[in-house]
Amino acid sequence: MAPTAAEQTEHHQHTRKAVGLAARDDAGHLSPLAITRRSTGDDDVVIKILYCGICHSDLHALKNDWKNSRYPMIPGHEIAGEVTEVGKNVSKFKAGDRVGVGCMVNSCRSCESCDKGFENHCPGMILTYNSVDVDGTVTYGGYSSMVVVHERFVVRFPDAMPLDKGAPLLCAGITVYSPMKYHGLNVPGLHLGVLGLGGLGHVAVKFGKAFGMKVTVISSSPGKKEEALGRLGADAFIVSKDADEMKAVMSTMDGIINTVSANIPLTPLFGLLKPNGKMIMVGLPEKPIEIPPFALVATNKTLAGSIIGGMSDTQEMLDLAAKHGVTADIEVVGAEYVNTALERLAKNDVRYRFVIDIGNTLDNVAATTE
Ligand SMILES: [Zn+2]
Ligand SMILES: [Zn+2]
């Protein structure tokens, strides 16, 4: 059902006091900001935020790299916490439940994409931060003490899924899970290539193994070999710049999840795919990508793209991850460390996700300013 007039008016009343870590301009420096959140609507879930992951796109948004940033900005779309209150129509959640919120907090809820469960394709999708909500206010993300979200956009954390290690799955996890599901790259015995071993790639490796696939990491960093094969459980590791290693796996892969956000030559990578193989782009290189048609046409290759996933798929992903013990590898940091964490993230100096311990540290930071 689409947002009602009553809901839009109701959302105007932002009566609830909260605090967040906000950037005031494209320098991207975060400091505490007192904000308000809307009062509890009939379909709303009120969440005390305990953890929030730091996604690479937070960095882009803070620095206005995509030229659409609104300030003050409170980023964060890998939110995990506890329900404190629910609206009178909410049946899925109750106070005390462990829940999460990912990249979106609303959509039109009435278009074809929404009806099919792909709220992520809805033209009216409202992002968790830096987006204009139905009531005209700009959304603030998870680097904050609490959030109020329509129940459709809240997922349940299974008992076995820790809030801190699970938070990054709400963006990084669904971003790789959804294309694996819809492009048939979730079948035992198939050979999956994971291009790039960062926040997205390391989770793709774990899902590939959970699906019973053979997983090969393709990376430009030889230094990541040991942990790819060890802790992350990949079956093989090849250095993309090593012509011999690349040649040895020519035409062996059923699919490649391409997580790289840089403009790299794609033709050699298509050579790794079997006939009918698929490359799925989930990274966002700045410049248009170049592919000689022959690389696609000669043996029926597919190039596809994918962006996050729908809400029912996000819940399914989290349930499956809990069942198979798939979590993100994280470094938990306090709110006082967030600017340093962002600097380190810009240099890819993290294995593989920073997660802010909002619940235990945000109040302390907020108390140090006016
Ligand atoms: Zn993200
Ligand atoms: Zn829609």
UniProtKB/TrEMBL annotation:
It catalyses: (E)-cinnamyl alcohol + NADP(+) = (E)-cinnamaldehyde + NADPH + H(+); (E)-sinapyl alcohol + NADP(+) = (E)-sinapaldehyde + NADPH + H(+); (E)-coniferol + NADP(+) = (E)-coniferaldehyde + NADPH + H(+); (E)-4-coumaroyl alcohol + NADP(+) = (E)-4-coumaraldehyde + NADPH + H(+). Residues 28-356 form the Enoyl reductase (ER) domain. One of its GO terms (molecular function) is zinc ion binding. Its EC number is 1.1.1.195. Pathway: Aromatic compound metabolism; phenylpropanoid biosynthesis. GO terms for biological process: lignin biosynthetic process. It comes from the Eukaryota. InterPro entries: ADH-like_C, ADH-like_N, ADH_Zn_CS, CAD-like, ER, GroES-like_sf, NAD(P)-bd_dom_sf. Keywords: Lignin biosynthesis, Metal-binding, NADP, Oxidoreductase, Zinc. Its cofactor is Zn(2+). CDD domains: CAD1. Residues 1-20 are annotated as: Disordered. The keyword Iron does not apply. Belongs to the zinc-containing alcohol dehydrogenase family. PANTHER family: ALDEHYDE REDUCTASE. Homodimer. This is cinnamyl-alcohol dehydrogenase. It comes from Lolium perenne (Perennial ryegrass).
